[in-house]
Amino acid sequence: MVLLRGFVQLTVLLIQSGWRGVAPSPTDEGALRTGHGDHGEPGHQEPHKDSYSTFASEFLESRYLSDEGYPFPTAPPVDPFAKIKVSDCGVTKGCLRYGKPGCDAETCDYFLSYRRIGTDVEFEMSADTDGWVAVGFSSDKKMGGDDVMGCVHDDNGRVRIHHFYNVGQWAKEIKRNPARDEEGIFENNRVTCRFKRPLYVPREETLVDLHLSWYYLFAWGPAIQGSITRHDIDSPPVSDRMISIYKYEDIFMPSTAYQTFNSPICLLLIVALTFYLLMGTP
């Protein structure tokens, strides 16, 4: 009876061990986890938990945020170009306009403003062109030996400030550029810019002291690959008198098309023709 009971217990143990299988040894368990089985089959591998997987999971979680959130840092917005205030002309800054009577910084053929800011002078220029706009500081009303500041629209859509020196009728670019705090925009087929330049500079041939009075030369024209070409007008307009940086005026100069009707000779002809038509022929 005792032998029979022992036989039954042994049979039960054998059945249980055969059903469950033999537990692998610690060595075999490590091999299955890190390498291959006895027959070259890939064993079970634990997931690789490292900094990369942590980063990837955090990245995927941060990629989809609420409407108020931003998944990635963004660059600060760029301030748009502030429009030129014509209402300040003659009050807090001086202005020179060339074009149609009543024109402003967006409609004049050429527009220039200036004002003192500490030890600097701020200039604003705008012209009806897709190339460049410039102002020259001259001791006379002729081109040649003039200090010139120009705003040039390049092929990349940028407007850059350049320094030139008039050699005869041609502008030579000078490496020393006194401009700072540069701004520029090309919009509506107009080149517009704003920059500052020191009021006082060391005495040099290509630079003038702006605290002195100068004739202002106005010029604009096309550009090729960021380089200026000949100006649009054969004889660029020039201020009638010397301009003082300390006196804020609002000066208007009619363009050629409007100068014809404003000339004294033309007015006399109009008066004579009107009188002739009213009196009639004898």
From TrEMBL:
Residues 23-50 are annotated as: Disordered. Residues 108-223 form the DOMON domain. Residues 1-24 form the signal peptide. The chain crosses the membrane at residues 261-279. Keywords: Membrane, Signal, Transmembrane, Transmembrane helix. It holds the Pfam family DOMON. Residues 35-50 have a biased composition (Basic and acidic residues). This is DOMON domain-containing protein frrs1l. It comes from Xenoophorus captivus.
